[in-house]
Amino acid sequence: MSQTIQLGRRFFLSAAAVTGGGFSLGWSLPAAAQKAGGSELGIWAVIHPDDTTVIRIARSEMGQGTLTGLAQLVADELDADWRFVRAEYVAPEVNQANKRAWGDMSTGGSRGIRASVDYVRKGGAVAKAMLIQTAAKQWGVPASECAASLSVITHTPTGRRLRYGELAAEAAKLTPPTDVAVKTPAEWKIIGRGVKRLDTVEKLSGKLTYAIDVQLPGMLNAAIAQSPVFGGTVKSYDATKIKTMPGVRHVLTLEDKAVVVVADKWYQAKTALAAMTIVWDEGKNGGVDSVQIAAFLKEGLDAKEAALCQQHGDVTAAIAGAAKKVEAVYGTPFLNHATLEPMNCTAKFQDGKVEVWVASQNGDATLAAAAEAAGVKLDAVKVNKHHLGGGFGRRGQQDYTRQAVLIAKQIPGVPIKLIWSREEDMQHGFYRPVTQCKLTGSLDANGNLTGLHARLSGQSILAYLAPQRMENGVDRVAFQGWIPEEFSYMAVPNLLIDHAVRNTHVPVGFWRGVNTNQNTIYMECFMDELALAAGKDPVDFRRGLMGKAPKQLAVLNAVAERAGWGTPLPKGVYRGFAQNTGFGSYTAAVAEVSVSAKGELKIHRIVCGSDPGYVVNPDQVAAQIEGSFVYGLSAVLFSEITIEKGRVAQGNFDTYQVMRLAEMPKVESVLVPSGGFWGGVGEPTIAVAGPAVLNAIFAATGKRIRTLPLTHHDLSHA
Amino acid sequence: MITLNINGQARDVDADPDTPLLWVLREWVGLTGTKYGCGVAQCGACTVHVDGVATRSCSLPVGSVGAAKITTIEGLSADGLSHPVQVAWLQHEVPQCGYCQSGQIMAAASLLVQKPQPTDTDIADMITNICRCGTYQRVKEAIHTAAALTVPTGGKA
């Protein structure tokens, strides 16, 4: 990978100038770089005379801990003393200018670590080899007699020692080797340890500068109104009333799709925008609502034509010959990401060059979007990456960066900070797709599952965002968890999984866990329905279908054991189980809930297991599991985006409710890394959150919830 | 011109009295540790202390603040680390993306003044700030830890 790329000395120094040196805190933005004099050993590590070790990070940090995890990977191979380790972003334009030497910057699909492990570990090993070679030369001894540990090279026979900080300047003169080996897992010292995150301290004091906090000399602020109906355009607007309002400087449009007010302060811009009259041409979608969309999807459940995920055996015959047939239809709504930091970007256009300050899940794509919007080449763009105030998939899209650049281009020389109001953010997302699913299962006289048909109907993310990735009308992403490599129940003798693609005018996108959320709710709740019909314990019933899924079965067993599946519970408390394979990891969960006679749900305990192959930082994996349940259960309990008159009906957190502390159950993480592969962490466990709780609700009430959110259902029971 | 008492300092601002305190802090005074999340007092990212009481500054017109003492996250402790809530937050590694954490920390600090040894129920009742990353479990644990540390009394507005 990047080790084969030969980069000259001149490049290294210029990269250091762009990305900065080392810092007193664990994390600093390049702009804050105070400390010069670091030496670059390869492209991933910069070591200073005082041993400070700065590790370059190409992916984005949005809370998921990737920044720290990636630094652990490099530092372990480098045999650095973790106390000296700091991190900094690689600037996208530097990556671009050097044939993307630091690899892919996109941070999604739980790939931040697992897709980087090979080249970043090699990067650490390269730096260590350069230090060892330098020490050996100084001592006049063979490199094989030198050992690295805790940022010190020791000549083993004599005990002589040289600190990394003493060696780095000389080591940096060497040509980085290309043929280095990485450690075996048994040799890891930092990988696998729950070291503290590198980016916590600044988050406790308010000092971390998120993109929304950027302040630049002469900066103006922009508020935006986009067409409420997706696809609509600006017909007319009247700015005469607001031009005299405090602070207002400019009123403009963006490609007839949005109206923007630019003012001294953002609050002034927002206030003036709200006072404006804007007439929209709603286009052809001004009459669409959620009821119509539901009917459109329902038709797809029985449609003749459908995109095939997989099939084996003869499911039609199996169902026709069933001793018992079980059928159910499920559905889930559109959902918004609702990152707590609303979309925003600051942009400056001057002399044919563009600079942006932004939170992005993909620095490369941000660079490209800014260039395209400004009409300049990639090398005329500079991107200042800020930590994200939440991403969850939303900030993989570049719409807000594009808008900020389009505004800045109309006001050259002036930095413009565009901030979306919460309402704009709620109503102009890339929503989790709306889908329905009809599941049909056949049981034989002994309660064995002989056939299973899952028919999805609903919107395709790829059709909207990346039609070039559709394969003959098939969106493979729609089948997450259900493709042969992931599906837990391949042992079912007759199987058919297909998808009636039913696209709406509502933009859709990747929402933490993506389609594993809906698909796992459908499949795992239906598995409980089948187990009930078969008269079997839900976990035992699944075990019987998992002969071809040994890794998944091991996680099932670990979770069932930790949760005490089958053991007595306090009166009124009931358990539910769910499992899924996704994003390269194996997950399962047990939920314990009670539901009062009046229908009040309380989630008492979650036990969630994951096998991600290797665990880089167990405390951060636990944090991701805890958080995934909040994000996943928010969607199950409260949240939905509905469409009325072609637009989103919800505007803020009063109408788009999410889970708060009072509803959060205790989540116990069961990490069972089996080794030999690198799976994802941020997303896999969200899939099991919903169905585990829904299955427990059924156990408690006898009520099978097949549509979400729960606010639509009365859980009261006798 | 409105004169505010922010983190023990007098600050003159020329904002319209209807402007929410949040935006005065962020845009007129330049204290950006206090965050915008919703603008309608739902999420709590904008929480500051007004005379020691946790207050959602996005919905408080600056003209109504008067001489009240405002404390923001920047003024919670001199070094940004030493308030018991900050100490406990670091110990439990509470933040993920961190965007809501200024508000969470300010709400927790105010809670501990009112209830120095809060129960889980007290915490659930009084910490209603939204965290989309889902740090609630650690927020709760860290508040108990902070309660066990010495909580400054009286002077922490």
Secondary structure: elements and pairs:
The complex is a heterodimer of chains A (718) and B (157).
Chain A: H1 9-19, E1 39-41, E2 45-47, E3 53-57, H2 66-78, E4 85-89, H3 92-97, H4 117-139, E5 146-149, E6 152-155, E7 160-163, H5 164-171, E8 220-226, E9 233-238, E10 248-254, E11 258-263, H6 266-274, E12 277-281, H7 290-301, E13 307-312, H8 315-320, E14 324-332, E15 344-350, E16 353-358, H9 363-374, E17 381-385, H10 399-410, E18 416-419, H11 422-427, E19 435-443, E20 449-458, H12 461-465, E21 494-501, H13 516-534, H14 538-543, H15 550-563, E22 574-582, E23 585-595, E24 601-611, H16 618-637, E25 643-644, E26 647-648, E27 666-671, H17 686-701
Parallel strand pairs in A: 3-4, 8-18, 16-17, 20-21, 24-27
Antiparallel strand pairs in A: 1-2, 2-3, 5-6, 6-7, 8-11, 9-12, 10-11, 13-21, 14-19, 15-16, 15-18, 19-20, 22-23, 23-24, 25-26
Chain B: E1 2-6, E2 9-13, H1 21-29, E3 47-50, E4 53-56, E5 69-71, H2 84-92, H3 101-114, H4 120-126, H5 136-148
Parallel strand pairs in B: 1-5
Antiparallel strand pairs in B: 1-2, 3-4, 3-5
Low-confidence segments of chain B, given as residue ranges, are: none
Query: Strand-residue fraction of chain A?
Result: 15-25%
Return the average pLDDT of chain B rounded to an integer.
Answer: 95
Terminal Cα separation of chain A, in Å? 63 Å
CATH H-tier superfamily of the largest domain in chain A: Aldehyde oxidase/xanthine dehydrogenase, molybdopterin binding domain
Q: What pattern of helices and strands is seen along the backbone of chain B?
A: EEHEEEHHHH
CATH topology description of the largest domain in chain A: Aldehyde Oxidoreductase, domain 4
**Tally of helical runs of chain B:** 5
Residues in β-strands, percent of chain B:
5-15%
What integer is the average pLDDT of chain A? Answer: 95
The CATH class assignment of the largest domain in chain A is Alpha Beta
Strand order of the largest sheet of chain A: 10-11-8-18-15-16-17
Count of helix runs of chain A: 17
Major sheet: arrangement of strands of chain B: 2-1-5-3-4
